[in-house]
Amino acid sequence: MKTFIALIFIGFLTYANAGFVEKCTTPKTVMDNFQAPKYHKGTWYVTHVKESPNDCQILRTSQKGDTSIVEHDFTHNGINGEQHCEALPETEKRLTFTCKFGDVSIDKTVQIVMATDYDDYSLYYLCSTFTSGPDKGKTVDNYLL
């Protein structure tokens, strides 16, 4: 599996220190002609997160047909495991991932890539709405590199 130097995302991975927002926004700069199958292959390392500057995350990404997949280590209710997120292509310049921990739906996460070279760097916006737990229905957002 190809390994990359800097970044990509998902789910709760950066939200421990983030505050809630009313709704997701669209960044002013959004990448034209984004190619999800080219982007979601291999391993990405999140190195910088706006709301949690010391958060590092290893993300395993892949494609299964048209479905983009992101997986990463995750702790939910004190249980260590893996969060699994899937998204289908959309007409807008975004992907909306449904994220689960085992059989439990955790959140819906919008990913908007602002810039990438598909190999070594990526800047993107994430916005997640929790689908279960005490924060169900609440939304958080963040920028990652």
Automatic annotation (TrEMBL):
InterPro entries associated with the record: Calycin, Triabi/Procalin
Main location: secreted
Pfam families: Triabin
GO biological process, one term: symbiont-mediated perturbation of host defenses
Record key words, sorted: Hemostasis impairing toxin, Secreted, Signal, Toxin
Transmembrane portions of the chain: none
SUPFAM superfamilies, per database record: Lipocalins
GO cellular component terms attached to this protein's record: extracellular region
Compartments reported by the entry: Secreted
Protein family (similarity comment): Belongs to the calycin superfamily. Triabin family.
Name recorded for this polypeptide: Putative triabin
Lineage: Eukaryota, Metazoa, Ecdysozoa, Arthropoda, Hexapoda
